[in-house]
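Input.
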Amino acid sequence: MTAHEKYMKYALTEAEKAYEKKEIPVGCIIVYKNKIIAKAYNRVESLKDPTAHSEILAITSASEYLDSKILRECSMYVTLEPCAMCAGAIVLSKLDNLYFGAYDNKSGACGSVINITNNKSLNHKCKVYGGVLDKECGFLLKSFFEEKRRSK
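Output.
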């Protein structure tokens, strides 16, 4: 198992917490100098806040930890390709690296639908690596939505 897969497993643990709370199961961690400094899972439903995506919550937590709005030397691991809002926050926080699990062909903003994290017009570009433990990450999301459809 690579270090990136190990960190993605921590993000999957966060996604499982979201699943248990009937939130869309996306989990995220942020690593600084080989230490996890932030972890979060989607809390949109419980907080009744459309911005409470795991990435936004993790960025806020990492910024508090480092006492900085700039997250240089940090890497984010998230189980689903970030949306436009989260990709924008990744650029604004100047994260160095983004590792994500499952691709999001409907609203992914890190290469699938649009590419905010590497837009040449923006002042920061983030190195992006997709597909880390994509099967495991995708399975959790697929299971969640299948269960949701069955319970309607």
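Helices lie at 3-20, 44-47, 54-66, 84-93, 134-150.
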